[in-house]
Amino acid sequence: MIEGCIKWLGEGLNPPPAVRQATEDYLAAEDTLARWIEEECLVNSSYFETIAALFASWKRWTEAAGEYTGSKKRLSQKLTDRGYRSGQTGPDRDRGFSGIALRQ
Which of 22, 43, 65, 98 has the most CB atoms within 10 Å of its CB? Predict the structure, then answer.
């Protein structure tokens, strides 16, 4: 038992490949932001979209999918966590994100 504990502390659980794949599949299915980006957005470093437009699309998509919408602030944080950079553009200095745009 002690040897097993030492091995666990050193290596972690080290689950079999089937368990790792099932976990990856589950997490991918639960990643609503990734699904929304794939279905509703285009990704390119030259793009910029306002947070108002992104949130309106996000809200429509989550409501149609029966998912939790949250707030504009929460969506902004999720996009920042994914590596999209927030900033301002245009004469009105609209806040938004570079690297992403809505599909037309």
Answer: 98
